[in-house]
Amino acid sequence: MELVLKRHRSIVEVFSELFNKKGDNIAYEEEGVIPKGEDFQIALDKIAAEIGALTPGSKLIIIDKYFTSVKCSDASQIIELFFTWASNSHIQEVDIYSDIKGNCFERDLVKRFDGTITLRLNKIPSQIHDRYWLFIQNGQPMIVSVGTSLNGLGKKLCIVQKISETDQAELIEILVALGITW
Q1: If residue 156 lies in a helix (H) or strand (E), which one and from where to where?
Q2: Cα 116 vs. chain centroid, distance in angstroms?
């Protein structure tokens, strides 16, 4: 038998429990940093590292107004690196929401993916400004905020960061309302 002593708590003690204590609202997060001059392949790996290893059959949704704004002279190298990375990451489907223009990058991207990985190019809703990569595994999204477009990876400093679960829920609600689903 254990003896437990209880004392009456003051109204101040009871009332103070209703509020967060100092520091209760702080969470540690570590962003991936892609410095200027970073190898393109390493930059892609840092984005994926934010969510961990993917299982076969995963889906990637990229929301980035300038994703397909790649110079024709850079297109083939970027497409090949992106395709290889997606294949090695077990991604089976890629939906890209961008400012679709019918340019050489888009044409060559569709040609390279050629059904090996399902690829869909979609017009980005005008209400979206920031860049997000949604990794979908078993129907569950994990969202990474990416500080630059595909054509900017490794050219200038940028941050990649996994979005917190609370913010993900709110962002998903907004994306679904804008017609972005999986």
Answers
A1: none
A2: 22
